[in-house]
Amino acid sequence: MSKFVFDNSPGIKILTEEQVKKIHEEALRVLENMGIIFDNDEALDILEGAGCRVDRETKRVYFPPALVNKCIESAPQTFDLYDRNGDFYCTFGDGKTRFNPGSSSSNILESNGHTVRLSAVRDLKLLTKVAQSLPHIDFVSSSIVCEEAPGELGSQYLYYTEMQHSIKPIIGGSTDIEGVPRTFKLLEAVLGSEEAVRTKPYTIFDICITSPFKWSAIGARNMVDCVKSDIPIEMISAQIAGATGPVTLAGALLEHTVEMLSGLVLIQVMKPGFPTVYGGAPCIFNMKTMYTPMEAMECSMITVGYAQMGKYYGIPIHTYAAMSDAKIVDYQAGSETARSGLMALESGFDNVSGAGGLNVIAEMSIEKLVIDNDFIGTLKFLEKGMRVDDDTLAGDLLIEVGPAGSFMGKKHTLKNYKKEQNYSNITFNYEERAIWEKEGSPDIMDRARAYVESMRDKEICPLSPEQRDRLDKAFVEVCLDAGLTEETARYLISTYEEA
């Protein structure tokens, strides 16, 4: 994938080539003249040493256009990810769209489809097992914020839980300033060595800028620490058009571009070629309801726009989609999930977070995750495209069968039907009504609920006894480092075991 060209343009576009160039030029002007706050002295030192003008009093950094362009050039177009076993998993940015559950939800929608409560470690444990089992969910993620986890611990309790039930790479992150070194300790315990953590990346760290235009003390420190620790970074701008960003969609897109490029510069001046993802989670501020939807059409339009910018820069791209702002799994949930997911696929996103998510990702439904897996399977089938060759065209077969004939019993049908049709379905109903009624007329939530329940007591991808012992010891050390007692650490471990 080249830089500053349109050869990589996605299938769906909202900007012309001239508009993409104009947004880039405006972003350079804003970065040079407005300044971005970095609330971390080390980050300020690094950027000043790279040629940026730094105002130490306001902590604003002003970026020379030539430096920004140089850092875009150095950002890699792809990087490799590995699974928990240290085996190659995928090349991120290879042109395939990969999906993971939504992240950081404080609430869980219970299986009855209506009751919402605070999320708990038992929910994350079950959700991770379900995500591991689903064929079209490519990564697991820190999907919910367990109510048992002390605030001092940041996101490490989530990593502790997830790593015990899935080998898929983790889309994670941290909510504490020491989050990266603490998470590194847990990763090292499971992967077996510092070298394995550094050379075979098993997690990507989401790091969010605080819109407008501020890398907080936590975000800036996490970014510096990730580069030092060789943990790939997924930068995310979650500005709210009309509140923390311009109400105009183009203005919100420009803000997103400025914010992402500012973070990219810090990462690339520290280590040129460091794996970096150009991500986002745009929202709008609904002036009528005072609500901030993520899956309104306006949000998807901004998303398509920044996909074009990321493709123009030749950097892997991420978004939140295949989710909904609905409060239950209803028509709104289905339509928003389908529309945003399809637009993300056609925009060429490399990573799409959000499956299972509801209500501005504040809520997760494990049942919806199963339903979304089926929908994502249809997207991946579309992504493969149509095979066109002598065998699939079947010209000779058409002549052989002729008018009023049947293709049902032909070897060609038996040979190709599993390749040409998508059968990876758990919840969607593709049967005759009579059969459906005989089964008790289950709706889509009934089917999803049954699948989730089938996973509850299964042991999926357990760690070896040696890995578990190392992880428990590392977790206790992390808790002590966070200012918690060993008693609290042991309580959290037992709470996980009993969940």
Key traits:
499 residues; alpha/beta; 2 domains; 19 helices; 20 strands; 46% helix; globular
Could you provide a short overview of the structure?
The chain is 46% helix and 14% strand. It is an alpha/beta fold and 499 residues long.
Account of the 3D structure:
This protein is an alpha/beta fold. The protein has 2 domains: 1-385 and 432-499, Alpha-Beta Barrel (TIM Barrel); 388-424, no CATH class. Helix content is 46%, strand content 14%. It has helices at 17-33, 41-49, 65-74, 121-133, 156-162, 179-191, 194-199, 217-229, 249-270, 297-313, 331-346, 366-384, 390-393, 395-401, 411-420, 433-438, 444-456, 465-481, 486-498, and strands at 36-38, 53-55, 60-62, 79-82, 88-92, 98-101, 107-109, 116-118, 140-141, 170-173, 203-209, 214-215, 233-237, 240-241, 276-280, 283-284, 318-320, 351-355, 357-358, 363-364. The strands form 6 sheets. The protein has a 5-stranded parallel β-sheet with strand order 9-10-11-13-15. Strands 2-3-1-12 form a 4-stranded mixed β-sheet. The protein is globular. It starts with 16 loop residues before the first helix and ends with a helix. The relative contact order is 0.14.
